[in-house]
Design goal:
The structure is a homodimer. By secondary structure, the first copy, chain A, is an alpha+beta fold. Helices cover about 35% and strands about 20% of the residues of chain A. Chain A contains 14 helices and 19 strands. In chain A, strands 1, 2, 3, 6, 7, 8, 16, 17 and 18 form a nine-stranded mixed sheet that branches. In chain A, strands 9, 11, 13, 14 and 15 form a five-stranded antiparallel sheet that branches. In chain A, strands 4-5-19 form a three-stranded antiparallel sheet. Chain A is globular. The N and C termini of chain A lie close together (about 10 Å). The relative contact order of chain A is 0.19. The mean pLDDT of chain A is about 95. At the A-B interface, β9, β10, α6, α7 and α10 of A face β9, β10, α6, α7 and α10 of B.
Chain lengths: ~450, ~450
Amino acid sequence: MSLSAVLTRIDDQLPDAIDRLMGLLRIPSISTDPAYAEPCQDAADWLVNDLQHIGIDAEKRTTPGHPMVVGHIDGPGPHLLFYGHYDVQPVDPLELWHTDPFDPKLEDTSKGQVIRGRGSSDDKGQLMTFVEACRAYKEANGALPCRITFFFEGEEESGSPSLIPFMKENAEELSADIALICDTSMVAPGVPSIASQLRGMLKDEFTIHGPRIDLHSGHYGGPGLNPLREMSRIIASFHDDQGRVAVDGFYEGVHEVPDELLRQWESCGFNEADYLNSVGYTQPHGEQGYSTLVQQWARPTLEINGIWGGYQGAGSKTVIPAEAHCKLTCRLVGDMDPDDLRSKIRAHVDAQLATDARVTWDSDLEGAPAAVMNVGRPEFEKARQALSDEWNREAVFCGMGGSIPIAGYFKEILGLDAMLIGFANEDDAIHSPNEKYNVESFHKGIRSWARVLDALAG
Amino acid sequence: MSLSAVLTRIDDQLPDAIDRLMGLLRIPSISTDPAYAEPCQDAADWLVNDLQHIGIDAEKRTTPGHPMVVGHIDGPGPHLLFYGHYDVQPVDPLELWHTDPFDPKLEDTSKGQVIRGRGSSDDKGQLMTFVEACRAYKEANGALPCRITFFFEGEEESGSPSLIPFMKENAEELSADIALICDTSMVAPGVPSIASQLRGMLKDEFTIHGPRIDLHSGHYGGPGLNPLREMSRIIASFHDDQGRVAVDGFYEGVHEVPDELLRQWESCGFNEADYLNSVGYTQPHGEQGYSTLVQQWARPTLEINGIWGGYQGAGSKTVIPAEAHCKLTCRLVGDMDPDDLRSKIRAHVDAQLATDARVTWDSDLEGAPAAVMNVGRPEFEKARQALSDEWNREAVFCGMGGSIPIAGYFKEILGLDAMLIGFANEDDAIHSPNEKYNVESFHKGIRSWARVLDALAG
């Protein structure tokens, strides 16, 4: 099979590929809003139809929520499972969009041409890089170089409630040699990136109880224990003055980044000043002694995401409230165990509690361990080489500060290692108004996948 | 003039006095709700009419809000200004009332007979103790022993917006030798109490700003400064581990309670265990080294009344918010200066702020210094003796943890010392469902005022 013919075909057919993507972007498949259930069906139908056009045996599969799309096509090389999602985030605040979010446009910007519209980057544009690579490969060579299973969900932006049950029920059909996921960013513009580690997640929520009822701060101010102060003290006790989490045993299972990986990261093109200044920071605020990148990718956090209690209206109310509330999440790395960590955090709070204060916990919030990709597998080096060839720049194994639970599910439910390759940029405004995807990301993304398919088959 | 004839008349006429109070209680004069503007007029009319029946030259006086009632009657003794308020708190949650809040009832309880209904204690029942004493005095003796100005407002429960302008415009008409206020509680059941000191108040509100926009805790968790953590740390820094406020210079102007007053307070009948246990505390939580009563009456506080920031809905959101908010109030004692204190607190927060954090303050919240009554005036000892005679129990000069700004206004605008005598009990449920006033409070309250009038005239 000829790769150069595929790449030529991709270049020649780019306008058609963009047109097709525009078609998918016009479907307002907002998964979290029940009013958009029909567009979610439409987006799934669109994908089934498009895959069938390529010659892929695809169908829409119902779930209690939005449908899955599953497709199969044979090929001589290894069996790949490709995952993406066709649903998108809501578009509010609509008034901040400069164009209709569901009437996508090509736009010339100072940083090059972009495709503007909801889902252009997350994840319709990204998933179509893979589909278009397959189309070009098939059209140029009459067949695909690998056996491929396509697996698209429509609930990624609304918590994926149907995903695990569907994977369990269809484990055999979804089996493969390795999973490919296209839902991540490049570490810097033009730097091809394979995410080699993702942080895990622990969610928890607690309420500090003080007096039996809300009290008048004249009658009880002084002798009265105030849950707002109590909670603030406890939150403050979570960290020491070096930015380290002060919960006993918190760092159990955390490993230092190996020197070699650290050197790779240092030369990966990450721009620390841009990253910090763009949101108003002049310095990193995490654990002292670690670089910004290591703080973000390879160190765990205990973060407070929401607090509330007492009077929050206009003016003033002289109240000592009965309760104070706190939502927290931890980002996990290495071998940190979410359940064990939850116990440690709860024990820390218990130990901090003053006499007459009481704590209760929300028991419904889940956790997931960190994921370290199996970069020792030969597919990773093959893909890295293919990406480097396409982008004329050494591709990097990068960390990611966020959590993508699907990688863990593939391992846990299907026994599959996952390889995360994405072409998004930090400034794509995913989840925000005026989302865009660089035409360069789309074009070179398609070419990248063609090269990766070729390399994996070889 | 004969006091014993007055007291006999009060005893004989008690059922009529209760009937009259019931009439006033039936008028739903909720000042904060515009829907009840007419009942507020009705309550003022009711009082004007009742005062006129006694022979007092009374009239309703318009304001931009609810009307004032002002009345005058001459007498040989000193000139007294009596203040009370005819407006009441809203009644919600209505479903927690066992009776119609505006259909007052006499009820037998394990602690004696009570008058149940909104305003029965705060302040209609209390102000009528004075009116009924005047009525009985006049009817028994043909005249009152002192010259009296009656001054009732209808906006006390809604911030008294018309009070200061009205006092300034009518300062001459409202002049007197001393002001009497009946809007306070007894320090313990059956212990007649004159409030000799009230704490002052300082209100403030701040916002901690961190990143320019809300951030994703995956992308920025670690390097990102979190305003929720920042605010918690600052709130925690307000107090040391002995319960003392750790703001530089906070205790300037605070005086220790003189030993003699302390001894009086210790024997005043205050039940510390009841006070703490009734709201779920097993111990006082204020400054170590001070008794519960001193913490409540004579020590300043810095209290947090409300906090909020980040995500507060169901489930979880992985956000590092751009802002965190805090409402605080201080209770002031001695010579603490609200403006000076505000500067000190703001300086404390400034000094605590981390790099890249910023604070803004609400500038619209007022303050008022503590009030110490001029208990050296002979009227105080006369009143104390009269109350002791009535209740067969040494009357006490007690402190109060709350703030009653009217006492300060009398001093500031009219140059009047105020004497606060009230017969409410802590369990009267003022501002709450099922408000009540003990018949004993009403009956002995009326008798108390008759004795006080007699003593002040002598």
